[in-house]
């Protein structure tokens, strides 16, 4: 590394006047102009993007011989060699590009020094661009499903607002206790300290994924499960003096992929007309008023006329073929509403002079999938700005804010499948016992005042036990209607970048980023909530409140050297990165309200109140050197050495070395294989 650095620094640079390069980019097959093509001067930061007529112009190009590279989506990259620039003159270089069949010419930036074609990588970097996402997902991670090899995207719940989980090439440990199996997320240079669920997929420019050891060598132990780097739109790919406005409205709904066949019959003994059930005393009764309903025992011993005799009617001699009296329901079809989905998005982006920008706002509303669920709300705002100051300086800044609310009450789809088809789950609570003294507290109606001041039964007071034969499965709608549980998220991210290029072959980069998540949640169970067991702590109500603050602050400094010596192109980079992660949380909660309808902690019985707090601070830093050698654009060597330190480890194991050595040979450049390009 030191020898390579000395070789770079030992080479003199002659300051000279500059010229310009201009031309037109066209489709080689149709001669039509290609807009949005990025034409860059290799080994420098100089570049331009073609306009709608295919025209581009690069000013401030040093006098001498240069190579140009043209890259755009859907076409093979083109390299133009030996472009001779003279002082105060404009050189015309027209470029023709062929449509690409396989996207090996895409340019990536993750894990490499500057922008590099995928075909020239010595390791694998998967890339997804906006063109690969014709129907954006609610979150950026769901967009990786089916588009990145080895990536498994899972959701632990269909509840709106649930963050997806991604595994790259499977779990990294058979013991996942206390450790994350997810990759490290980086958004516009911001190393995230929390979930990626708040981000808006509509703002994405591209996603790059590194899997395996190549990721850990670049970002240390935090990237043992891989790296997912997301770049948001900045307006840099637009043609000069172009401003683009976007408005998008999306609407949809969730549906079960298929209907589950549920039992429409029952297994209980009926009277001769099929209108009443028979209890264990032989008396006729309605379904909810039967103290002990009796099994039908259709298969009980041949010749036995009375199936209620002990030993003749049991689970082994009964099957479900009895018709329910009255109306029957498919409970899943009745209460699985699917949940409507709506997202509204507006943005403006443009490029003029040395400035490019992107600003956007989005509103997301996703309803719950079951009756009684409210779903989630989310509002996002983002602004990205870059400014070039002459040929030597470029600065950029990004800011993102998200605010959302999620209904955390989980609906039980499985609970619906256990409800009898003949039970009306919306029927209000009452006592069906012949003797009122035999009624439990959970059977007493809950009365409230309507808007006119009249006392009525609470329409949310649905019957708790619609299946007297099953004491393990209460009416799932009761919890959905009567529990209040919400989560509130406030997310702020910001970053600033500066690049200084004092020489054509030398540049310095600095980055500062900040990520903050404020999360608050509240759970409330009112006084008078019902339970089969009439447990005091349940029926007297309870509540909990939590607040968590997560902050991640990072800064880095880079030095990049790029030189060409004949057929040998060399690039070397040195970086130092410091990370500060802080987490703190407080919680309080308890049970047994003194008075009803006052959901505050001070209203709880002090003997049943608990409180706690947690604080964690993690400090980490790392430095690395990476070099890339490319000979005749076909023989490639990539090497990296990194030292990583973290306060999570003890003094004797606080720092660790990581290495990466990779090579590639572009076989098709030396051996011409018929039918392959």
Radius of gyration: 33 Å
The number of distinct β-strands equals 35
What class do helices, strands and sheet pairing give? mainly beta
| Low-pLDDT windows of residues | 1-16, 174-178
Q: Quick one: overall form?
A: elongated
Helix content: under 10%
Q: What is the helix tally?
A: 7
| Order of neighbouring strands in the sheet with most strands | 18-23-24-25-26-29-30-31-32-33-34-35
Cα distance spanning the termini: 35 Å
Overall average residue pLDDT? 82
What percentage of amino acids are in beta strands? 35-45%
Please tell me about this protein's structure.
By secondary structure, this protein is mainly beta. Among the domains are: about 100 residues, Immunoglobulin-like, CATH 2.60.40; about 120 residues, Ferric Hydroxamate Uptake Protein, Chain A, domain 1 (Beta Complex); about 130 residues, no CATH class. It is about 5% helix and about 45% strand. It is built from 7 helices and 35 strands. The strands form 9 sheets. It has a 12-stranded antiparallel beta sheet. Strands 11-16-17-14-15 form a 5-stranded mixed beta sheet, with helices on one face. A hairpin with a 7-residue loop joins strand 9 and strand 10. The longest helix has 8 residues.
Supply database-style keywords:
677 residues, Immunoglobulin-like, Ferric Hydroxamate Uptake Protein, Chain A, domain 1, five-stranded mixed sheet, 7 helices, 35 strands
